[in-house]
Structure formats: C-alpha cells, structure tokens
Amino acid sequence: MMTETTLSSYVKDPLVLAQENFSSREELFEQVAQKASDLGWVREDFLDRIKTREETFPTGIQLMSMGAAIPHTDAECILEEFVAVITLQDSVVFQSMEDNNQQVKAQIVFVLGLNQPHAQLEMLQSLMGLLQNESALSELLLANTATELVSAIKKNNL
What we know:
By secondary structure, the protein is of the alpha/beta class. Helix content is 40%, strand content 23%.
C-alpha cells in the first residue's frame, strides 16, 4: 500500500531555511519554534519538549561526507503538521543517535512536526533513505534559497 508520507507533502515554505547560521542547536530550535509558533502550528511547550527530547534521545547521524539530524518531539504539541528543512553554512553540533558521547556536526537538519505516530515512523524511514542518497543530499546542501531547496526536494521526489 502506498502512503503519502513524502517529505515534499510536509515541507512548507516558512520553515525551509537555506544556508543559515546558528551558534548552537538550541538557537536553531528556538528559531524553528518561534516561526512554528507564530504560524500557530505548535503549542507553547514545543520548544521545551524538543530540547528535552534531543538531550534524552539524540538525533545526530554521521554520514559518509557530512552530518545530519532529525530532531522531533511528542505528537500532542503539534497542531499543524510540518517538516522544517534547514541547511547550514556552518555545522551545528548534535549528539549521535548511536552513541551519546559522539558529536555529529550537522549540515542539514530536519525538524519533524508530525502528530500521527505512523507518519512519524514513515517519515523517519524516508529520511533515512534520503540520507543514504549522496547526490540528492548534496543538491539540497547546494541550494542557496528556500525556493531552490524546495525545488531540489520536489525534483528528487522526496
């Protein structure tokens, strides 16, 4: 059965950030939470919950040529589903999901704002597929604007 849990169906312009600079993952979370909150997409506890969850269950993933992270939080604080896609000029440090003592310098971050558990699982699986696709990933990383980033996602059928 084919389901529509594709990245492009959840990617929404206000939360697509290309070539950003953040001093820390906390600052990245704050920016995403602020935008999502302004849009009415998350409850006010979203920021605390995503920070806490990231400390407890880190989401950094070390790839061959770069690092990525897929932070997410509890379904009940998401009012309108989204996946924020952020590419970074300077990487932001996350802890590795495989080993909390390992640091991952993430250059691309997908913040999942999903409120259906099965969708969250399917999205994680499809993102894991994307993270193994070096050519699609490098296209995303080369995008200079949110518009280019969204079209790279669509072009690669993500």
